[in-house]
Amino acid sequence: MSIDTVFIDATNHKVGRLATRVAKMLLENKSVIIVNAEKAVFVGEPKRIIEKWRSWMELRTLTNPRRGPFHNVRPDLFLKRRIRGMLPSYWKRKRSRILFRRLKVYIGVPDEFKNVQKITIRDAMIDPQSGKYKFIYLEALCRLLGWTPKGKSQ
Questions:
Q1: How far apart (Å, rounded) are the C-alpha atoms in residues 110 and 132?
Q2: CATH for 41
Q3: What residues contact 34, with CB distance under 8 A and at least 6 apart?
Q4: Is residue 154 part of a domain?
Q5: The pTM of the whole model exceeds 0.85
């Protein structure tokens, strides 16, 4: 059983649709590497999307908030968490944990993957110039949730 590696450029891909397709690839025993995670998009009214994720960030344990749950606001970890949710019973099944380790998500394009052919998933993409969709980039959402890019201050 050989493991194929799939390289995906997440630019202008819908987060949910991308997550389902990647989860399916992982279940088919493929290794998946996603680059440009910050350029993935959430489709919908940006104000509502921001409101939804801000309320999600406030979820805490009632007895002791320091115990979690802990939420990632870095775009690569944020996208990785959405994909993890698409795998079957992640924490309960050893197979799902093994599959999840085959997933790598990066902000930008690392030097070792610059010359690699990357695929796009046609049914998960939007055309931002068409004006057909209202959307917000994952990078913008993460900044509003509290993420500051490394080496940059706001």
A1: 32
A2: 3.90.1180.10
A3: 8, 9, 10, 18, 22, 79, 103, 104, 105, 106
A4: no
A5: yes
